[in-house]
Structure formats: C-alpha cells, structure tokens
Amino acid sequence: MNAEEISLEEVKVKPVVDHLNDLLANYHIHYQKLRGCHWNVKGPSFFTLHLKFEELYTAALLTIDELAERILSLGKPPYSTFDDYIKTSAIKEIQTIGLKDTLMVKAIIDDLAALIAKEREILDITAAAGDDGTNDMVNRFMQFNEKNTWMLRSFVNED
C-alpha cells in the first residue's frame, strides 16, 4: 500500500512517517522506563505512584500500537526492534532500581516534555502534508501528555 490509496501524496508522507517512527522509538523507551518505575517505586507514595505509573505505561502501550498502525496505514513499515528504538530515541534509559520516588516522577516529566516537543513538531509536518488523520491522533497524544505533565509537576510541587 502507498499513501495515495488514502488520498495523501507519497512525497509528503515520507517526513510524516520518519517522524512517527522517531516518536514510536521514544515511546518504547518511555514505556519501559514507566514499567521500571512501576516495579521499583518504594516509600510513602508507593500506592499513589504505583497506580499512576501503571496508568501511564498502559496509555503508552496503546499509543505505541496506534503509532505503528498509523505508519502501516501510511504504507510504510514501523520500527520494530529495540536496536532501532535505542539508536533513534532522544529519551534515554535510566536505572530505576533504588531510584527515589520523586526522581522517578521528574524523569517521567522530562520524558513527557520530550514527547510533547516531538508531537508539536509532527503537528506542523502533518498539517503541511494535509494528513488530518495523523494530526488528530498525535494531537490527542499530546493533550494526554500535557495533562499528565501538570499532574506530575503538581505531585513534586513544581507547578
């Protein structure tokens, strides 16, 4: 399949797909970081953060699937190896074992800031390509990340 089959210009879709694959890689590293935080959080805020990290990694997993399927809808293959994710992602892995709970939250806040920046960039690219479907999807991801940034910043008293 190619982009013309869904009324998009192939030449305009390439930068969209490249940026979606970049976002996909970043979400994979973010997802795994959230899993590590979920598994390794300790202390008085355990119950609160354990649940919040689970909510966030569940949302990230759904986002990963939507991104991959959108890339396929645009007629291209999504990245599918950890080698690709690690090489491509601006978000980096961290060791969550023994990490203080507030440092976990701050690491996730940093990830969300990186994801939001990438999502804003994609919105410009999809608008230029006339790709309203991808634009709507990415805008939804960005809104979720913005709201959770506010919540997590409030949790660590950085609002």
TrEMBL record:
<dbReference type="Pfam" id="PF00210">
    <property type="entry name" value="Ferritin"/>
</dbReference>
<protein>
    <submittedName>
        <fullName>Dps family protein</fullName>
    </submittedName>
</protein>
<dbReference type="InterPro" id="IPR009078">
    <property type="entry name" value="Ferritin-like_SF"/>
</dbReference>
<dbReference type="InterPro" id="IPR012347">
    <property type="entry name" value="Ferritin-like"/>
</dbReference>
<comment type="similarity">
    <text>Belongs to the Dps family.</text>
</comment>
<feature type="domain" description="Ferritin/DPS">
    <location>
        <begin position="18"/>
        <end position="157"/>
    </location>
</feature>
<dbReference type="InterPro" id="IPR023188">
    <property type="entry name" value="DPS_DNA-bd_CS"/>
</dbReference>
<dbReference type="InterPro" id="IPR002177">
    <property type="entry name" value="DPS_DNA-bd"/>
</dbReference>
<dbReference type="InterPro" id="IPR008331">
    <property type="entry name" value="Ferritin_DPS_dom"/>
</dbReference>
